[in-house]
Amino acid sequence: MTAEPYPVSEIVASRRPHRKDAARNYDALLAAAREAFAERGAEASLEDVARRAGVGIGTLYRNFPTRRHLFESVYAGEVEDLCRLAEEVSGLAPWDALTSWLRRFVAYTVTKRAIREALNDESEIFLACRDSMYAAGGPLFTRAQRSGDVRTDMDFDDLVRMIAGITATNFLDDAQRERVLSVALDGVRAPLSRGAAGSREDRDRG
């Protein structure tokens, strides 16, 4: 896989300030907003976001004039991270590359769920982010399918919807989420691949 000019990358680049000090504040605000939205949902206080970033509320509004603008920028940043990770893991074995990407996708859905109501599914930025995410993760899925690791009676959209559905529910803790995700991913593996993995694990225990 080679780097692609994902639509979301253009959105992120166009919004990020060029001056180094302004860019640092912008990045700090995005990181703080991502954390606040994950913890408290879309109603997280903008004053709290500014405090976490270590800047004044005026700096926040200079970078993000409206709450929606901040939502969009956080969302686009999360999707760009997913696109970048797809490139980083593409050298791994097909199944390892796919599951590494999917575990980051799980973290992304937590932020998405927090701000989903503020974004229209038909908005330009939402569609650009969706196209970018599928362009990044789709080849990892296809590669794992061609290697015989993933069952052939499903497509990438099926997988995305399954993982999104799992992460939409509330879990007791991260350990429970990981167990449920592992069970789901086991169902994604091709039968022969699951058997081979089990044999390897048995040999390792022996």
Verbal overview:
With 206 residues, this protein is mainly alpha-helical. Helix content is 75%, strand content 0%. Helix 2 (20-40) crosses helix 3 (46-53), helix 2 crosses helix 5 (67-89) and helix 6 runs antiparallel to helix 7 (124-146). It starts with 6 loop residues before the first helix and ends with a helix.
Spell out the blueprint of helices and strands.
Elements: H1 7-15, H2 20-40, H3 46-53, H4 57-63, H5 67-89, H6 94-115, H7 124-146, H8 156-167, H9 174-188, H10 191-205
Helix pairs in contact: 1-5, 2-3, 2-5, 2-6, 5-6, 5-7, 6-7, 8-9
Task: Write a concise keyword list for the protein shown above.
disordered C terminus; mainly alpha
Low-confidence stretches: 199-206
Mean pLDDT level = 85
Give the C-alpha Rg: 19 Å
So how many helices? 10
| Structural classification | mainly alpha
- Helical percentage: over 70%
Envelope shape:
globular
Total E-strand runs: 0
The end-to-end span amounts to 37 Å
Note the main sheet. none
| Elements, N to C (H/E) | HHHHHHHHHH
Strand content: under 5%
